[in-house]
Design a protein that fits this description.
By secondary structure, this protein is α+β, with helices and mostly antiparallel strands. The chain has 2 domains: about 260 residues, Zn peptidases (Aminopeptidase, 3-Layer(aba) Sandwich); about 70 residues, Beta Barrel (OB fold (Dihydrolipoamide Acetyltransferase, E2P)), CATH 2.40.50. The protein contains 6 helices and 18 strands. The strands form 2 sheets. The chain has a 5-stranded mixed barrel. A 4-stranded antiparallel β-sheet has the order 15-14-12-17, with no helix packed on it. The longest helix has 17 residues. The protein is globular and about 70 Å long.
């Protein structure tokens, strides 16, 4: 592990064997607490000489499936069945997660747009810096769990960065995707991963030479049992495949064909509202749609005599995510498509 200049201090020793539960203490001096700190809960389970796996959730505080899945894992895993280390951070942006908000109420920042962070910045930027330079630096593998949050709902989908065929890191990421066995997997654009413009967790992992992937599981501002089940099974499959944890009941193995592969490299795979209105979708999650097909209508109850505005898909693909709130403003995302890989 490289030396970090972060002011965040863990209450546990990451180098110690056994199961250790505690907090990452982020100093936070405010009017009500001059010498206070923000407590980010963390669990480390270490035994043997195997690889280190870092699991995170709550990067966006209104995404709950990952937080629930990691709470269960943290209680279930015991050191005697571990060969390596598992680090669990269920409320990565603790202020946002505690408030149930996508962005932090302390600085209004989106953690997944702030990597590599700043050790002397606002709370969100300090968290980003610690996660990348300390936790990612310790890890051989990482998985960052997301969902659609309050505004979107996603089908269970693993996200991974693509790249050139034959590249070892790309091959290892693809191996993890296949092992996880989610119904869908989407290849994200790989440009600028190691550049200063890349601000997400998967880019942070790559900068630290960690094999990192992520996923979207449900959303709607709630916990969806079906999506949670896929997430929990996949997390266990990864640990079993990597030889880091062998549970008393080993998870089923993902089969070839379980996962439909897509990419997001084509233009216009995000559908946006072009004005304010009440959104009536005419397509649903999992539908395969064509270019020019009607996506829905924006209605205007304040002028009920006005003709509803038609929204169309500008590209063909499969609907991975759909907006949840009916009220939409110009610029709101209505659908996210993936282009099916044949």
């Amino acid at each position: 592990m490289t030396k970090s200049s972060s002011s965040i201090e863990p209450t546990i020793d990451f180098t110690a064997n056994g199961k250790h539960e505690g907090f990452l203490k982020l100093p936070h001096s405010v009017h009500r607490s001059a010498y206070g700190y923000i407590p980010l809960p963390v669990v480390s389970i270490k035994n043997g000489t195997g690889p280190t796996v870092f699991y995170s959730a709550g990067v966006h505080g209104d995404e709950f499936e990952g937080q629930v899945a990691l709470c269960k894992l943290a209680k279930e895993i015991t050191p005697d069945r571990v060969n390596g280390q598992i680090i669990i951070l269920p409320m990565t942006n603790f202020p946002a997660a505690r408030a149930g908000l996508r962005t932090s109420p302390l600085d209004d920042l989106n953690l997944n747009r702030e990597f590599p962070g700043d050790p002397f910045g606002t709370p969100t930027r300090q968290i980003a810096y610690y996660v990348e330079t300390v936790l990612m630096d310790m890890a051989d593998y990482s998985f960052d769990i997301h969902s659609g949050g309050s505004s979107l709902h996603y089908l269970p989908t693993v996200l991974y960065r693509g790249g050139e065929a034959g590249n070892e890191e790309v091959a290892r990421r693809e191996e993890l995707v296949a092992t996880f066995g989610a119904p869908f997997a989407i290849e994200m654009p790989s440009s600028g991963l190691k550049g200063s413009g890349s601000r997400a967790t998967m880019a942070a992992a790559e900068r630290q030479n960690t094999i990192g992937i992520g996923g979207e599981f449900g959303g709607s501002g709630t916990v969806t049992p079906e999506c949670l089940k896929v997430c929990e099974l996949g997390l266990r499959r990864l640990l079993n495949h990597l030889g880091v944890w062998c549970s008393e009941t080993p998870p089923s193995v993902a089969q070839k064909g379980d996962t439909t592969y897509l990419n997001s490299n084509s233009k216009n795979l995000l559908v946006f509202a072009d004005q304010e209105g009440l959104f009536e979708p005419t397509a649903q999650l999992g539908n395969r749609v064509t270019t020019g097909q009607t996506a829905g209508f924006l209605h205007h109850p304040d002028t009920p005599w006005r003709v509803a505005d038609e929204i169309k898909f500008e590209a063909a693909g499969l609907i991975l995510a759909k907006r949840i709130p009916g009220l939409a403003e110009r610029g709101d995302c209505l659908f996210h498509l993936g282009k099916i890989v044949t």
